[in-house]
Amino acid sequence: MKIQSKLGNETLMQREKTAFLCSRKTPDGLEYLVGKWILGLDEGRDCIMCGNQSAMERAVFTTLLQRRIPTILCLAEAMPSRWGDDVREALAAGRLLVVTHCDASVHSVTARSAFDRNVLMMSLAQKIVVGCCTKGGKLERALAGFDNVEYLANGQPWLDHMELINNPPAEKKPEPTRLSRWGRVLKLRRGTIFLDFNDSGPQTFFKITHSVTAADGGYCRQKMFFDRKELTAFSGAVDFLMGKMAKGEGVPPGLTVASLSGDITFSEQQDAGIRMLAMTQAKDLVGGVHRVNTVTLAFDELPMLAKGVEDALETW
């Protein structure tokens, strides 16, 4: 296992590094212990490796940036194309390095990519700090064989209440659904399109992800989301555009597919003499944030997308 992409101050890899890890299930009072540990860190002495997947990891990462502690963020998915202001500020100041062991095929976090990310962190760090480790969990398995580990929870009086956390009632894991098993990969001249479903929550969404290698060696990923009604309308728009293409006509102005995730508009571009179709989903979010994602492919690649969307609708 090796790092596939890097962004930021690579000299941080030469520092003595401490990896912070924590199980998803955490007992009351752990925030105090983790916060106390962070207060003892020194920006001139320490360099912390952590993820940003679980709630505790995100809290630690945010606090490290606020306290200006040199940090190495380890991802369990491909490198994203956009960052928040706090991350951009830390990158510009040379206090942050972002790394990932994933290539473009891992466009969302999986159990395997998260486990491998943790093992990579532990193998690169001189010291490991564990906030909480659930008995029998994946983190406990990953820590096997490492002796440079400090457990923040050890010796605390409230640990008597951890029995339920360490030995939770057995619960039946949900079986994979036909939607979670469904997926398509479309190889394009420029990048790869992944088609799949997000059906882990109470509402199911269809997702189109366009992954392209960026100039810095990372990956730029553009995503669009649809419910079933919106995807049906999008499929109709794609079929309409293929009809226009067959007649040698261009994209008609004003063609739009309405979506709660952001309306989708269509436009034509030229790339090295190739007619390209740009599909843009834009939405105004709270706080004045304007989110824009654009999926681009050649006109002669459009039938592949149409077939994938048609298959998805038949499966849905």
Number of helices: 9
The low-confidence runs, each spanning 5 or more residues with pLDDT under 50, are 155-166
The backbone outline, from C-alpha atoms, is: elongated
- As a percent range, the share of strand residues is 25-35%
Reading the helices and strands in chain order gives: EEHEHEHEHEHEHHEEEEHEEEEH
Radius of gyration: 23 Å
How is the main sheet built? Answer: 7 strands, mixed
Helix fraction, binned, reads: 25-40%
* Spatial strand sequence of the major β-sheet: 1-5-4-3-2-6-7
Mean pLDDT equals: 84
* End-to-end Cα distance: 36 Å
Query: What structural class do helix, strand and pairing data support?
Result: alpha/beta
| Beta-strand segment tally | 15
Write the layout of secondary structure elements.
Layout lengths: L4 E4 L9 E4 L8 H10 L8 E3 L4 H12 L4 E5 L9 H8 L3 E5 L10 H14 L2 E4 L7 H6 L5 E3 L11 H4 L11 H4 L1 E5 L4 E7 L6 E9 L5 E8 L1 H19 L9 E2 L5 E9 L2 E11 L5 E9 L3 H14 L1
Parallel strand pairs: 2-3, 2-6, 3-4, 4-5, 6-7
Antiparallel strand pairs: 1-5, 8-9, 9-10, 10-11, 12-13, 13-14, 14-15
Helix pairs in contact: 1-2, 8-9
